[in-house]
Design a protein that fits this description.
The protein has 176 residues and is an alpha+beta fold. Helices cover 61% and strands 19% of the residues. The protein has a 3-stranded antiparallel β-sheet. This is COMM domain containing 7.
Length: 176
């Protein structure tokens, strides 16, 4: 990808895999930088947050390197610097996308799923009698705890859900 000094490599790691330890290390480096250059830490943090908004937004919107370059130029960055950032975006965005998807999936990780089909035997609404439904039990890992989530779907809702899951699977496979 790119050759980096050890300091640049550390900063790159902070962007690609945000662990608590790495965030704390980054904040320490930011504080040291502010002290060394005699600037206030608060405004520096705000500047860094603002700088990170552009790549974060580009990642969420799946922008091309040319779109990122145009955004930076619109924000007042010189053509040379915007082109350099666009080149780096072109090189690193596939990796950042894969990592973002991985982090997203680990927040509420699906551990297990059970389902049961049923038929409505009685209801106050005559047209509902005899309709097919599906009960889902999802076991989701939230942090270190497991949580059971129960969902009841009509047959059309189930097929819609199945279709969406197939689309998600296809999208995830395109990243690997």
């Amino acid at each position: 990808m790119c050759e980096c000094s050890s300091g640049q490599k550390e900063r790159k790691d902070l962007v690609t895999a945000l662990s608590l330890e790495q965030v704390e290390r980054f904040l320490t480096q930011l504080s040291d930088f502010a002290t060394m250059n005699k600037i206030s830490l608060g405004p520096l943090k705000n500047i860094v947050k603002s700088i990170l908004l552009v790549p974060n937004g580009a990642l969420k919107r799946n922008l091309s390197s040319e779109q990122v370059r145009a955004d930076f130029i619109a924000l007042g960055l010189s053509e040379e610097k915007a082109s350099y950032f666009a080149e780096q975006w072109k090189l690193n965005s596939p990796t950042l996308t894969r990592l973002a998807v991985g982090q997203t999936l680990m927040i509420n990780q699906l551990i297990d799923m059970e389902w049961k089909f049923g038929v409505t035997a009685g209801s106050s609404e005559l047209e509902k009698v005899g309709s097919i439904f599906l009960q889902l039990k999802l076991v989701i890992k939230k942090g270190s705890q497991l949580e059971n989530v129960y969902v009841e779907l009509t047959l059309p809702q189930f097929y819609s859900f199945l279709h969406e899951m197939e689309r998600v699977k296809t999208s995830l496979e395109s990243f690997s």
